[in-house]
Amino acid sequence: MVVYLKSKPHANGTSSSPKIDVPSIVQGVINDIRTKGDSAVRSYSEKFDRWSPSSFKLSFQEIENIISKVPKQTIEDIKTVQHNVRTFALAQRESLKDFELEIRPGVHLGQKNIPISAVGAYIPGGRYPLLASAHMTIVTAKAAGVRRVVACTPPINGEIPSSTIAAMHLAGADEIYILGGVQAVAAMAIGTETMDKVDFIAGPGNPFVAEAKRQLFGEIGIDLPAGPTEVLIVADHKADPTTVAVDLLSQAEHGPDTPAVLITTSREVGEKSIKEVDRLLKILPTAALAGVSWDTFGEVIVVDSLNEAYELADKYASEHVQILTEHPREALEKMSNYGALFLGEKTCVSYGDKVIGTNHVLPTKKAARFTGGLWVGKYLKTVTYQEVTSAQESGELGVLCGRAARAENFEGHARSGDIRANTYLGESFGWLQ
């Protein structure tokens, strides 16, 4: 039995306010940048960010001057967090092995993992300086072996976000631009007179940034489709309602459209958690955003058993799934659809967002059903190669290829096999006469 103590006020969980035609606006910006290059980039930067310096790219000296203004403790914290991210990313890279096997005598098949040559990292600004996004996108790319990383971040209220620049530089960015929005994504993807194009773009952003990545996908690669942050908590009767409430609101403060869901086996925990959320929203400095998300997208659901809770949570396929139960590691076996799991009350989603070392660029809008989040493997091209050194095996493969190709009416393919069967086995074919 499923009981909703709190459900979304709208049937689809969305606002009834008029919608902006984001795809059309984004397409117009991309088309302008494609035809006008830097002049269009500058025009849109002036329009959207009121930012038009002589050069959007920061020089090494400018970077050094900006970083010198960042508090020493912030620099040390950046280095600590980036060490965690780098350590985990390098371990991921080490797990991806190149290999070669001899599938038959003289027939060699191999696999190589080759880093993408040039990557763009988009570091959002908007409401807050998002240092962590620099760690997740740039450090991970460099751990994968990417040679050139271009990093873009917008100004915040007309100012350069110095701490973000420090994070980008210390992460290993090769080029840093104070440039945001669609114009940044399009400039990186298409290239302009002053910015060489990249092959892949990673990083979160607002709906316009996400739509720009979607429209440019195919011309360049992207990490994954991105939507508003999501959090789902699975809790049993032993969960602390205050912890539940705090952890739900910690994600709801990302913006006004964050789904925050509690699935619990305890009606008491559910009811007390709702009361705690209401109490905390009266004192939380970011309540203006978090409260809108909670009112519009917040849900509290009571189920009969943890198995039912895990099954329902899998249907949500949430970006962040936090397990506040007596035996949290049980979720590793019971669940399969999530961006990332956070196991036990000593762990929280905010650790994953900011400091612990796993990547926080994760699938949203149920994309966790078919993909994981950003990781070192996203920056690698897994390619294969083959070599036949045995004449006998090449001839026998030629005979097999001829039959297999003709079963599909691919005569040209068949003849590639025929000629090797003829050369190495002496097989006769009418077309060779």
From TrEMBL:
Coiled coil: none annotated. Its EC number is 1.1.1.23. It catalyses: L-histidinol + 2 NAD(+) + H2O = L-histidine + 2 NADH + 3 H(+). One of its GO terms (molecular function) is NAD binding. It comes from the Eukaryota. Binds 1 zinc ion per subunit. Keywords: Amino-acid biosynthesis, Histidine biosynthesis, Metal-binding, NAD, Oxidoreductase, Zinc. It holds the Pfam family Histidinol_dh. Pathway: Amino-acid biosynthesis; L-histidine biosynthesis; L-histidine from 5-phospho-alpha-D-ribose 1-diphosphate: step 9/9. GO terms for cellular component: cytosol. This is Histidinol dehydrogenase. NAD(+) binds at Y122, Q183, N206. Zn(2+) binds at Q251, H254, D353, H413. SUPFAM superfamilies: ALDH-like. GO terms for biological process: L-histidine biosynthetic process. It is an enzyme of class 1 (oxidoreductase). Belongs to the histidinol dehydrogenase family. Catalyzes the sequential NAD-dependent oxidations of L-histidinol to L-histidinaldehyde and then to L-histidine. Its cofactor is Zn(2+). Substrate binds at T229, Q251, H254, H320, D353, E408, H413.
